[in-house]
Amino acid sequence: MNIFRISADLLHLASFFILIFKMKATKSCKGISFKTQLMYTLVFTCRYLDLFHVLGMMITFNFAHITGLTLYNTFMKILFLAASYYIVYLMRTELKSTSDDARDTFVLWHILAPCAVLALIFNAQFTILEILWTFSIYLEAVAVMPQLMLLIETGEADSLSSHYMFAVGGYRALYLVNWVYRYATEPYYSNWIAWIAGFVQTALFGDFFYYYFVKIMSGDAALKLPT
Amino acid sequence: AAVHRDHDEL
């Protein structure tokens, strides 16, 4: 555990609260891609299946392998799962009438199928849990695509949406730094699957980051994309 | 040994 990893997780956690706050405050999910949020629930569901194992150990009072890091990870995993499912729930119940589904036109198979195939080929171990974990890593890298397409279609984003995108994009950039740090400090550390996927994921936000910083510099309220 | 690293990250 290092400062880069902790700040990354806190930035990720902030992204959920920014989005939920925005949806509750404006009572609208306009400009938010349901498909991207749905992909995030799938990402965390496939990635955090080890929760059952950890929670199983806890309720059987088998604390031998429970460390502080395990508790931190378990707490955050439950938070991330709850927040991402809550967002999808909000978008399909209370805020359904304000959904932007008409413009949320990204074809999900274009990311689901390649990630599934890649996870079956490039993985650390050919086991169900490891393949699902790898699938979640690949899927998270491209899960923002529907949201980016919607942002391009809209041509602009209000400031909360742009802060949300900055947080959700920035957290993985901090993970890249965390991986460099761990590679440099831990003798047998290698995480090339997550590194490559994380690099692609951060690169996908590159264009957005550019316009986000331009907006910050120029003091504009809303993020403007070139028409 | 290629210790199968446990996923200790989120």
Short structural summary:
The complex is a heterodimer of chains A (227) and B (10). With 227 residues, chain A is mostly helical.
Index terms:
heterodimer, A: 227 residues, mainly alpha, two-stranded antiparallel sheet, 10 helices, 2 strands, 72% helix, 2% strand, B: 10 residues, little secondary structure
Describe the structure.
The complex is a heterodimer of chains A (227) and B (10). The mean pLDDT of chain A is 96. Chain A has 227 residues and is an all-alpha fold. Chain A has ten helices and two strands, in the order H-H-H-H-H-H-H-E-H-H-H-E. In chain A, strands 1-2 form a two-stranded antiparallel ribbon. In chain A, helix 1 (3-26) runs parallel beside helix 4 and helix 8 (159-185) packs antiparallel against helix 9 (192-204). Chain A starts with a helix and ends with a strand. The relative contact order of chain A is 0.15. Helix content of chain A is 72%, strand content 2%. By secondary structure, chain B is largely without helices or strands. Helices cover 0% and strands 0% of the residues of chain B. Chain B contains no helices and no strands. Chain B is rod-shaped. The termini of chain B are far apart. The model of chain B has no long low-confidence stretch (mean pLDDT 62). Chain A binds chain B through residues 5, 9, 12, 47, 50, 69, 73, 76-77, 80, 124-125, 133, 175, 178, 188-191, 194, and chain B through 3-5, 7-10.
Structural class of chain A: mainly alpha
The global form of chain A is: globular
Q: Roughly how many Å apart are the termini of chain B? A: 24 Å
- Low-confidence runs of chain A: none
- The rounded Rg of chain B comes to 8 Å
| Structural class by helix and strand composition of chain B | little secondary structure
